[in-house]
Amino acid sequence: MALATVAGVVSNDYGFGSTDLGVSLLGLLPAVFMVAPRSGTITMLNVSVRVTVAVSLLASTITFQVYRAPANSSTFTLLAGVAAPVAIDLVTVGTTIAGTSGPVSVPVAAGDQLALVSTSDGLVTAVTGVVGAGLAIS
Fold it and tell me: Which CATH class is domain 2-137?
């Protein structure tokens, strides 16, 4: 993951199970995503970031959100409430920071495509690290 933000404008896009997909100035969604293996309900999103390089000039929050597209579609929409905020300040290399969505109840259908996207509310933030994320689907 390499997230660079100036005035909260830049977002980074990930696919579940992907490696660095780069920074997107337009907030475009990735070409890699997770496919829901069965119908169910998303009940939680957990995210962990292990920092490998970090600079944060102001305290900020990186928010990881899940977007969904129906099977055989390329139109992703934000899943309201499925967001895991991760607060950062002047973190050091090797630090692991984490966030969770808290309990949610969002239905998904078998075959839905799910993508992870991060944004920052900080004025100037640059973080490089490894992101791990998990969705609980009941």
Answer: mainly beta
Spatial distance between the Cα atoms of 16 and 18, rounded to a whole number of angstroms: 6
Contact 75, 29 (CB under 8 A): no
DSSP designation for 72:
T
**DSSP assignment letter at 30:** P
Domain map of the chain by residue range? 2-137
Q: Which of 38, 118, 55, 116 lies closest to 86, judged by CA? A: 118
Q: Angle CA(133)–CA(134)–CA(136) in degrees, nearest 5?
A: 155
pLDDT by residue, tens only, the chain of 138 residues: 444 444 444 445 555 555 444 433 334 444 567 889 999 999 999 988 887 876 665 677 888 889 898 998 878 888 999 999 888 776 777 888 889 998 999 999 999 988 888 877 766 566 777 788 889 999
Tokens of residue 95, six digits: 């630090």
**What number of other Cβ atoms are within 10 A of residue 138's Cβ?**
8
Q: Which has the closest alpha carbon to 111: 39, 42, 41?
A: 39
**What is the pTM assigned to this prediction?**
0.77
